[in-house]
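Run log // design_07
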């Protein structure tokens, strides 16, 4: 979820085509487009929750809550506010535009009517303020996707 396909291929000793084929099969099984930042964030969260052992015991069947249900709780809202607190409105708008553009700085810049360099400068500032890696490995972007989703859903 956090590495380019070529890096995964190198790490596993596979060809990029093999990795791409595995990703296509995963996308089909999940019914998700893993090129979409929202889908990657959702799958990343699901993998983190499943590996944490936070789920019910196999004999204790309980319906699995939806992602929207999990993100609509007061606990999630508190986390979201705390996560985004260091950002001013300008940096939040830039992050939202960047995410809406599927992390494409050029497309976000066009939508905002600013230069690509301005978007990247705002993203670097947001990285520093949030203490999250947004531009290299992408591990922090999943948190921002969820935090902005929670904040936007509560604003409606």
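design_07 sequence
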């Amino acid at each position: 979820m956090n590495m380019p396909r070529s890096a995964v291929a190198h790490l596993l000793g596979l060809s990029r085509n093999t990795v791409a084929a595995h990703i296509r099969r995963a996308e089909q099984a999940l019914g998700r487009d893993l090129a979409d930042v929202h889908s990657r964030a959702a799958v990343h969260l699901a993998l983190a929750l499943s590996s944490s052992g936070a789920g019910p015991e196999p004999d204790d069947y309980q319906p699995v809550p939806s992602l929207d249900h999990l993100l609509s709780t007061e606990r999630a809202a508190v986390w979201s506010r705390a996560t985004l607190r260091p950002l001013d409105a300008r940096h939040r708008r830039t992050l939202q535009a960047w995410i809406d553009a599927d992390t494409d700085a050029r497309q976000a810049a066009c939508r905002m009517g600013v230069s690509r360099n301005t978007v990247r400068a705002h993203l670097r500032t947001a990285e520093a303020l949030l203490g999250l890696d947004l531009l290299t490995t992408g591990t922090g972007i999943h948190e921002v996707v969820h935090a902005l989703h929670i904040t936007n859903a509560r604003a409606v």
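The two ends are 30 Å apart (CA to CA).
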